[in-house]
Design brief:
The chain is α+β, with helices and mostly antiparallel strands. The protein contains 23 helices and 36 strands. A hairpin with a 3-residue loop joins strand 32 and strand 33 (about 645-650).
Length: about 675
């Protein structure tokens, strides 16, 4: 037994010794493993000045340890060219400038050449989609004061271009032309590797290290400005930049202030103008943040690698010329529409895209109005010798933006999202606007700070609905005063479904027997209608059935007995005069003398319905609309000939009353009184 124990002991000792030896071999550094990025660069004779820059900025330690990086490293020839303005010595470069060069050359993750612009989605690289042309660098602009607040910076992005990228965005074959359009002094693919870093050639690729890899480039790249920063420093865009300043907002960053132990509050700065107002309304906000580096980062961290903004910046002369059209300072809503028309969201567009058929900016390039262009960290700026005025400045909405006296009505249009609806540049509209004095006389005011309309000092809302907002009441008010054309013999239909008569010659508007004079009539610059200034609200038109009940009770009774309880939108009804309706006699012998259905007569109700359907047309016919004259089908499917002042049916001529014609009531129904029962073909 004792011998057995000794044997087991020595066997265990031998096993333990062998196991420890295997562990040492497993964790032993392989001979083939490269050194760290710092070590590899130090041994690379082409990048010795970059090594000095790492030492001077403290980044030698970072790149000497573990990590996962890709570096875009200027070679010594590139540094020597750059250092000529600093006496040829890297030590003469201000440390913040040198730090910027180094930090802008470092990005997270090791990108091999085959995935340099590939999209990363859900943890894998999609090599078929090479639109990720930007990489987040380690460069942060130091926190800086702005309007009395300390602003936090964001990590900037470095643009990359590859043959795969141009193929993905549909520009294969025009790689060199596109690249040199953006960078006229640079040469595409000088290194023969099908890849460029901003305006520098990549001359060596995938130099491996244990904590990443590096690419050699032939130019020193300084951190790029974003759109907001570039517009602010370029004298050609000073007018544009000053308008953007109206939308600058600051948001206190509680987390960063506390976690960094900052002695002062730290803020994020945005240029969207977004404000926490009623219903999170977009009034006076702009669509993109030109200061934003991590575009669409709320969607995913990777989104910013393939998303960017394109901005067209008008020359100072052209923009000032546009701004002179306003009587006073342009409102934020006016600037919102102006600026938004100079953006293309979320993707950088290149000339081939912008000049294709259907592009809204095609003419810019056809007429050589592009003065210059600039690739920036979050997109692309085109400097243009023009102002891209949207249709809101050319159509019926133009007066409410250019004339300060309509400012409250402008906010009403914006609040209910009608401005753009009125501005497609094609559809005729007739906008009945109220100046500020007229709205005040109605007790209507607007609080811009909360984006709320007030009526007689309280929130203007539907009183029967506790959850209603002022937007509900404003919508009902605004839509009653927008008529959509083209005119049908002088009549147009409002967005609430009622026809109004617009008398352009005599400058008046008629609705439900109320005649409202027009104070000011302004034709749309793009020939899409008129803006009318009025002081009196259009009435809520009477229900068509109620009108018939009160004014033509026998005809109303016929409709009810036939099962017609309402008349629908886009109907025309020819009213049989009560004097021609004799209950119990032909053609109304399906009714008793008291006007009720005579059940003794077979299919009495259907026979009555057939007569009434001869007097209904499922389209609007105005006696002043010559385009509607001619043969039309009644609801019964039979034909009549509408001649405006009269109708031709199977028995001859039916006259339309000269005073009771073109009667428009609620639900978009047109009524005409005729002189007898019609007998269609």
């Amino acid at each position: 037994m004792k011998k057995l124990k000794i044997l087991v002991f020595f066997s265990s000792l031998l096993f333990w010794s062998c196991n420890e030896l295997e562990k040492e071999q497993i964790y032993e550094r392989p001979e083939w493993l490269k050194g760290t990025l710092y070590e590899q660069l130090k041994n690379d004779q082409n990048h010795q000045i970059y090594i000095k820059a790492l030492d001077l900025t403290g980044y030698s330690d970072k790149l000497s340890r573990t990590g996962s990086y890709t570096l875009f490293v200027p070679n010594d020839a590139a540094f020597n060219t750059y250092l000529s303005k600093y006496g040829g010595d890297v030590k003469n470069v201000p440390v913040e400038v040198l730090k910027g060069i180094v930090e802008y050359s470092i990005v997270d993750y090791p990108y091999t050449r085959d995935i340099l612009t590939a999209i990363s989605q859900w943890g894998y690289w999609d090599k078929s989609q090479n639109s990720a042309f930007k990489k987040k660098t380690y460069y942060y602009k130091p926190n800086y004061p702005e309007d009395g607040k300390m602003v936090l910076s964001q990590r900037k992005y470095l643009p990359l271009y590859t043959v795969e990228y141009f193929k993905t965005i549909g520009l294969a074959g025009s790689d060199a032309a596109t690249y040199q359009f953006l960078f006229p002094t640079a040469k595409w693919d000088k290194g023969g590797l099908g890849a460029q870093a901003y305006d520098a050639n990549i001359v060596s690729i995938e130099n491996p290290a244990e904590n990443g890899l590096y690419y050699g480039i032939d130019k020193v790249i300084l951190p790029l400005n974003n759109i907001a920063e570039e517009l602010a420093v370029d004298i050609r865009s000073s007018a544009m930049s000053s308008q953007f300043a109206r939308f600058r907002e600051f948001y206190y960053n509680d987390y960063t202030t506390i976690s960094t132990g900052s002695a002062v509050k730290l803020y994020n700065m945005k240029y969207t103008g977004s404000r926490p107002v009623e219903l999170a309304s977009s009034i006076a906000d702009i669509d993109i943040d030109i200061f934003e580096e991590g575009i669409n980062s709320t969607y995913s961290d990777q989104a910013a690698t393939y998303a960017a903004h394109t901005v067209f910046s008008p020359s100072n002369e052209k923009l000032i010329e546009h701004l002179a059209k306003y009587d006073g300072q342009p409102s934020r809503p006016a600037l919102r529409h102006l600026l938004n028309n100079h953006f293309i969201k979320n993707v950088v567009q290149y000339p081939k895209h912008l000049t294709k058929e259907g592009s809204p900016h095609k003419y810019l390039f056809d007429q050589n109005l592009v003065l210059d262009k600039k690739v920036v960290s979050n997109g692309l700026i085109y400097f243009i010798n023009d102002v891209l005025e949207s249709n809101v400045f050319k159509g019926v909405t133009a007066p409410v933006f250019f004339k300060g006296k309509y400012s409250k009505f402008m906010y009403a249009l914006e609040k209910v999202d009608q401005t753009l609806q009125l501005s497609d540049g094609v559809t005729p509209f007739y906008l009945m606007a109220f100046d500020n004095a007229a709205l005040t006389s109605m007790g209507i005011e607007y609080d811009e700070s909360t984006d709320t309309f007030l009526k007689n000092g309280t929130r203007w809302a539907v009183t029967t609905n506790a959850k209603a907002t002022s937007k509900d009441s404003v919508r009902a008010f605004v839509e009653r005063h927008i008529a959509k054309g083209p005119l049908k013999g002088g009549f147009a239909k409002t967005l609430t479904g009622e026809f109004v008569e617009i008398d352009l010659e005599n400058n008046r508007i008629k609705s439900d027997d109320l005649v409202i004079p027009v104070n000011e009539k302004i034709a749309a610059r793009n020939n899409t209608g008129y803006t009318f200034s009025i002081n009196q609200r259009l009435p809520i038109q009477q229900d068509n059935m109620l009108y018939l009940k009160n004014n033509h009770p026998k005809f109303y009774n016929l409709l009810i007995r036939a099962g017609i309880t309402t008349l629908f939108d886009e109907y025309t009804a020819f009213i049989i005069p009560d004097s021609k309706i004799v209950y119990g006699t032909a053609p109304f012998n399906m009714l008793k003398t008291d006007g009720t259905i005579n059940s003794v007569v077979p299919d009495a109700q259907l026979k009555l319905l057939a007569i009434l359907n001869n007097h209904l047309v499922t389209q609007t016919l105005f006696t002043t609309d010559i385009n509607a004259f001619g043969t039309v089908k009644t609801k019964s499917g039979k034909s009549i000939v509408f001649n405006g002042g009269n109708i031709a049916d199977a028995s001859g001529t039916v006259m339309i009353d000269t005073k009771k014609r073109n009667i428009t009531k609620a639900s978009g129904v047109v009524l005409h009184l005729i002189d007898r029962v019609m007998v269609p073909q």
